[in-house]
């Protein structure tokens, strides 16, 4: 079950990153974050009310608050990076955040077997190579790399925090709701500051009503990914769940190839193969 939930997380995060990066090329990244999370809060609020999730409130929700504080910063940095550079180049660097939850798992006493340890090394190397990251080039490329590394640490911290935010399924819905409400508060405050400093809150042609379904998909896919990751971490070793969940850049790169015709280089294809090999080792271990 751990592998299934973790791979579902990669798929959902990969599509959410692709959609968020694409939307950020036409709409300010902060607006993409706030609007997509508002949709997620509305849906999660209805689910929590229907399942009686309020009864699961506990001090563990502070982990959800922490994830909500870190998440918008990471998402904003990542969406800006995706808007600046090719998705297939930027996205794999975001997977380096896997070091945070893996480190937490090791600190808590988890010890992967030889096959799993090999799978971790192979999968992480494959994910990085899948985007063929280029650390040299124009200033825009360097800026995109710095933003992505900031986002990577934030994503890793969110993974570690959300895994500790609940112990039951209904509690998970409440934790995700609290996380998203915090996301909106932080993101909304940042958007207000940006507008006061002269930044744009909307594209020149006004609110992107035509993009609302896509914004909703980004928000809901990101929430679902957090949920499936929490389930993966609960059913198996965090070290395994975190690495498998971090294969999402491969999904983003393939989506960019399919929809934007971004060409995959030989190193990217080799990286995708390594990521797949690492997945097999982790699942078999």
From TrEMBL:
* Domain annotation EamA: ranges: 3-130, 144-282
Q: Name the residues that span the membrane.
A: 28-49, 61-82, 115-132, 144-163, 238-259, 266-284
Which UniProt key words apply to this protein? Membrane, Transmembrane, Transmembrane helix
Q: Which Gene3D superfamilies match?
A: 1.10.3730.20
- One Gene Ontology CC term in the entry: membrane
InterPro entries found in the cross-reference section: EamA_dom, EmrE-like
Fetch the PANTHER family from UniProt. ACYL-MALONYL CONDENSING ENZYME-RELATED
Per the similarity annotation, which family is this? Belongs to the EamA transporter family.
Specify the protein name: Membrane protein
């Amino acid at each position: 079950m751990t592998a299934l939930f973790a791979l579902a997380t990669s798929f959902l995060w990969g599509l959410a990153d692709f959609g968020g990066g694409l939307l950020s090329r036409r709409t300010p990244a902060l607006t993409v974050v706030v609007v997509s999370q508002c949709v997620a809060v509305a849906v999660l609020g209805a689910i929590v009310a229907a399942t009686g999730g309020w009864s699961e409130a506990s001090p563990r929700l502070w982990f959800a608050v922490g994830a909500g504080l870190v998440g918008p910063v990471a998402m904003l940095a990542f969406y800006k990076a995706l808007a600046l550079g090719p998705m297939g180049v930027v996205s794999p660097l975001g997977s380096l955040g896997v070091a945070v939850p893996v480190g937490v798992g090791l600190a808590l006493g988890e010890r992967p077997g030889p096959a799993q340890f090999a799978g971790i090394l192979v999968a992480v190397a494959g994910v990085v190579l899948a985007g063929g990251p280029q650390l040299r080039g124009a200033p825009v490329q360097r800026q995109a790399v710095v933003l992505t590394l900031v986002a990577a640490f934030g994503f890793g911290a969110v993974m570690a925090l959300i895994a500790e935010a609940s112990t039951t399924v209904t509690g998970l819905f409440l934790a995700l709701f609290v996380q998203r409400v915090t996301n909106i508060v932080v993101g909304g405050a940042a958007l207000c500051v940006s507008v006061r400093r002269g930044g744009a809150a909307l594209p020149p042609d006004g609110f992107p009503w035509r993009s609302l379904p896509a914004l909703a998909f980004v928000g809901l896919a990101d929430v679902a990914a957090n949920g499936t990751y929490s389930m993966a971490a609960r059913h198996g070793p965090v070290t395994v769940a975190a690495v498998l969940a971090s294969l999402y850049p491969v999904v983003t790169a393939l989506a960019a190839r399919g929809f934007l015709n971004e060409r995959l280089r030989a190193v990217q294809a080799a990286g995708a193969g390594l990521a797949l090999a690492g997945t097999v080792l982790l699942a078999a271990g």
